[in-house]
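We examine the record.

___
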Amino acid sequence: MKRQKRDRLERAQSKGFQAGVNGRSSEICPYQQTDARSYWLGGWREGRTSKSEMMK
C-alpha cells in the first residue's frame, strides 16, 4: 500500500517537473487531491528552476 502511494506521488512530481521544464503554467495541474497536487507543484517549481539555470 505504501509503495503504491509513493509511486503515485513520485509520478505526480515527475509530471510536474516536465511541465515546469517545458514552460507550462502551474494552473494546468491536473490533480485535485492535496497531496498529489503538492507533489506536482513541487516538481513544477523544480522544473522551472532547472530551466532558468540551463538558460544561464
